[in-house]
Amino acid sequence: MSSDDKKSEEERIFDELVERYIAEEEDGLTHEEREKIKRENRVNAINQWCAENPNRDPTRAKDKTIKQLALDEEAVVRLEEFRKNNPEKMAEIERRGENKSKYRDNRATYKEQLPRDYLHKDSYEARLKKAEALNGCGFKTRTFKSKRFTDEYAAKLSSPDSGSTLEGHWVESDGKQLAISWFGGWSNLFTALSFLLMVSAVMFFFVDLVVIGFVWEDYRWVPFAIYAPMFIVGFYMLKHRAILAHRDNFYFNRHTGLVKTPHTLFRKPFYLPYEDIVCYGANERNVGSARGGSRVFVSLMVPLKYPKHYRFTKPTFYVGGSNRQWDSLAYATAMTFMDTSIPLGTHLYQSIEYYFKIDKDITEKHGFPEELKPYLDPTDCQVNRQEVW
Predict the structure, then answer these.
(1) How does DSSP assign 72-115, residue by residue?
(2) Tag placement on the chain: N or C end, fewer CB within 10 Å?
(3) Are both 141 and 208 inside the same structural domain?
(4) pTM of the entire structure?
(5) What is the CA radius of gyration of the chain?
(6) Across 225-362, where does the E strand assignment appear?
(7) Are residues 256 and 370 in the same domain?
(8) Using CB atoms within 10 A of its CB, is residue 72 exposed (0-12), middle (13-18) or buried (19+)?
(9) What are the tens digits of pLDDT across the range 132-152?
(10) Taking each helix axis from N to C terminus, what angle separates 31-52 and 3-27, rounded to the nearest 10 degrees?
(11) Does 289 reside within a domain?
């Protein structure tokens, strides 16, 4: 969000508070009392319309005024139901809102400009040489053509604050790095192997139950000795597959301007400038068997440069698995994240606060980035600044 946008947002909030204060001075009512009267009038208008138009839905009324009143009331009812069914979430939302008001009141800290020397400032050529040094070799350049993946995603968000979040869209961030998950990888391989071991152990065990009394005789312990360890190993692999999840991510580093690719089954990861990563959406909605296998929309992350030691293959990575909108949003979020001329979007705050709370970086192998700690309140574990860089 630009400085002009932030200024206009602050002006809007200030104008709203002034209007509320003037209204309270004029009629002597509080904001809550005024909203209660407004709702009573809205409900009366809707009930009157329903009496005149029985068996009709006011949210589909031709009268735009009645339709808007019905939609407003519907939104209020949904909010009341959410408050009733999710008291813990509402308490958390209210706590965060109170904290934000507290931070804004402390104007000196809220608007303080902290050093940004840690952000990448190198040119593309300098970062390319740095990536070559990390990879231990030069790059090959490719041109990507595909009959299936033809829709290239935009590399910029329509608004810096409306990107992917921690709760979905395959994006996580600790403020220094942002991760996008690879659709295939070690964690998925371990998941498949664990299910195979567990299902095989159960199936073969029940088959052997039929023949235990006739064949095994004094060796009835043999099936248990074989299938019990198979099931235990499969269950352990399924439970702890997340240990390898960090190997299956793209890491966009805002402090170096480089991207680290995932570990493949036979190749080590490599580094490249973020400008050399593009993402395409499939023009067909299917992955898997053409004879009726699973059909899931995926996107393809394509490095336009790759190390010279990749002699027989050109690396490409399936990402996403949700839908075109979410996948494109995740890619645009990552590319906007790497733009050091603007602060981080507010949609990333929840993820940053999560990693700050557990004091881990995004790989959960190191501590939370020291450069980002001044932007968060150590007690509330919440962003307490106007902007986060």
Answers:
(1) HHHHHHHHHHHHHH-HHHHHHHHHHHHHHHHHHH-HHHHT----
(2) N
(3) no
(4) 0.73
(5) 28
(6) 249-253, 258-260, 271-273, 277-282, 299-303, 305-307, 317-319
(7) yes
(8) middle
(9) 999 999 999 988 888 888 888
(10) 80
(11) yes
